[in-house]
Design brief:
Two copies of one chain form a homodimer.
Chain A: H1 26-49, H2 55-63, H3 81-92, H4 101-122, E1 126-127, E2 130-131, H5 133-137, H6 139-158, H7 163-190, H8 197-222, H9 227-254, H10 257-260, H11 266-269, H12 275-283, H13 286-300, H14 309-321, H15 324-343, H16 350-365
Helix pairs in contact in A: 1-3, 1-4, 1-16, 2-6, 3-4, 3-8, 3-16, 4-6, 4-7, 4-8, 7-8, 8-9, 9-15, 9-16, 12-13, 12-14, 12-15, 13-14, 15-16
Chain lengths: 368, 368
């Protein structure tokens, strides 16, 4: 599936196919993302600084804080949706946003551990417009620093030494297990010709939904919320994660390269069995059948790497004609609606509810 | 450094150069190792069974429970020193041995996570007389299943939901961070011509000492021990780990291939900068200098892979002549003595103290 990319301070306009039913909250969301970054990044950097050399340097490169030559860099650290959610999660439980910071940092560490390992497993050479860690520092450092970030995530929580931290660590561990399950499914699907829509949704729920769900509850847990409140926030995050991934899958095919920083038809070039593809293949009818024949032939083709723009455009058109694009856009809207509906299951300050709603809207209208 | 290998039910006779000063506790130790295995293996297998396919199968192969074709196998699961220590650790705190079982399982999961990743990073093709996971199932599965075992280790502890489990998880996380630091040092030393004895000891303390130290305290923490008791047991385990590794380093050069299951001069063939080598190089004198010249030339030699038995034997003889073998044997005895001395810092049932002493003796007299 497409990975999380983005830059700081982006403005948001709802020009995405999934965005018909949601309002525009540009200012709110930019401020929320900025707050998440401002509160969590110093703690994240301090945690990463604890790593022994050369792991601290390799990690700093991965986070975009230095370049491949070790010079300070103002790199692209991603959209920072998860830290923003973790802080709101603390506020949803009536605690200060700051109570969620260790959770925000732990979730970011796990997210980046998984990026380091997934990029190596998948052979991906680019991430956030830069060479990936295994390309620059070698496979061993990608494995080792990934491991170190994972360990650091647990350390950041458990060193708090509170019962709440233990509960937070337990939830993070469950989410990490699902994240790993999702990656295992993603790898196994690559070797299969057909993947069902249900399998794809299950994989995306594990690979993207679980950690976003954890981000949405971990701040509340650290802020003293009971399990029911945390479970509701987790459910919100799970559906938000599915909406997020559906939009990612749309952007992976039809995203504007200038916005996404990826090639045109990016997921098609990588033969990804993303939601629009599996939905189109499952739809039946002439376009679906023609698409199936083409993709089967592509899987065996030795010319695939030299395909022209037109050949990818033809596949994208068939996916759209078979209904895969519209189905995925609907899926994003459906999951977005469920996420917001679920939030009503728990009492929280109305300002926080509005902010969680605004973030959910942002996730489905974003263009990168 | 040499890795942990061994088989079940081994009998122990003190014919090792490090064994002059310790008594023989054959029967005791065999029973202790067997108890550790009997109590922890079913829980370990149940934990591994929770992994989603194909990770459960890959992990079962790694643990030796099935062969590469998936057929049940009565493989070599290692000496199981860590589980035995974790159970004794619980008893040292006045709890039942069973209280230590989740700790034993968590430590084994972390140990095996590190083996999966280290074998891939180091390019090691054999482990416990079998092809390593990355050789059989590919690098991606080695990374993924290693990650899954690490997550499972935290899960096994944190799902207990007690304050003691949170403290145990925190100690395990610290140990895992050190383990990763040690692997980072080991990798960086491979690229250097000279490593000091102090650097080698620090690396071995991280790579072997930290997790053995955790095994020796985690049962006590789960059994309700205070931090001081846990710290003393951890210190015992740290020194025991250094003794263990010193013996491993001796066996890696002078071990009997029939006992160790490795080639003759195993660590010399892999150009490992183990304790006997760095101690010999640091010693000075004609043999030390001649050894330094040979190893420098070996590092650049294109014929190294076709070296004869005699060429390795000549290097081993120089290490011995320069005093590297005797220094390492002394180091094993010294760390063994400190481990046992440290134990007097805490009250515990005398039977448990005797068993911890017997296990320490076993570690330095073992031949595999």
């Amino acid at each position: 599936m497409s990975s999380t990319t983005g830059t700081r301070g982006e403005s948001v306009t709802p020009a995405n196919p999934a965005s018909d039913t949601v309002a525009d909250h540009t200012t709110d969301v930019t401020a929320l993302l900025e707050r998440g970054r401002a509160l969590s990044t110093p703690v994240l950097r301090a945690a990463v600084d604890r790593l022994a050399p050369p792991m601290d340097t390799v990690a700093a490169y991965h986070f975009g804080w230095i370049d491949a030559q070790g010079r300070p860099s103002d790199g692209d650290g991603g959209k920072a949706v998860r830290p923003a959610l973790a802080l709101l999660s603390a506020e949803a439980a009536g605690a200060a946003a700051e109570a969620g910071v260790p959770g925000a940092v732990a979730v970011e560490l796990v997210h980046n551990f998984s990026l380091l390992h997934d990029d190596l497993m998948d052979g991906d050479e680019q991430r956030r417009h830069r060479d990936t860690v295994w390309k620059v520092h070698g496979p061993a450092q990608a494995i080792l620093v990934g491991d170190a970030l994972f360990a650091l995530a647990n350390e950041v929580l458990l060193e708090l030494g509170t019962p709440e931290a233990g509960r937070a660590a337990r939830r993070l561990t469950s989410a990490t297990r699902k994240l790993i399950d999702g990656q295992a499914q993603d790898i196994s699907y690559e070797h299969r010709e057909r993947v069902t829509v249900e399998e794809c949704l299950e994989m995306e729920g594990n690979k993207t939904g679980a950690l976003l769900a954890c981000a949405c509850s971990i701040g509340a847990v650290l802020g003293g919320a009971d399990d029911r409140t945390a479970d509701v926030l987790e459910a919100y995050g799970h559906h938000l994660g599915l909406a997020f991934q559906a939009v990612d899958d749309l952007l992976g095919i039809w995203g504007d390269p200038e916005s996404t920083g990826k090639q045109t038809w990016s997921d098609l070039r990588q033969r990804k069995k993303s939601l629009p593809v599996v939905a189109a293949l499952a739809a039946g009818g002439p376009a679906s059948e023609r698409l199936g024949e083409l993709l089967s032939a592509d899987a065996k083709s030795s010319d695939f790497d030299s395909f022209s723009e037109e050949e990818f455009a033809a596949r994208a058109a068939l996916i759209e004609e078979a209904g895969g694009r519209e189905w995925t856009a609907q899926e994003a809207r459906r999951q977005h609606a469920v996420a917001i509906e679920v939030l009503h299951g728990v009492d929280m300050p109305e300002t926080v509810r509005a902010q969680l709603t605004a973030l959910a809207d942002f996730v489905v209208v974003r263009k990168r």
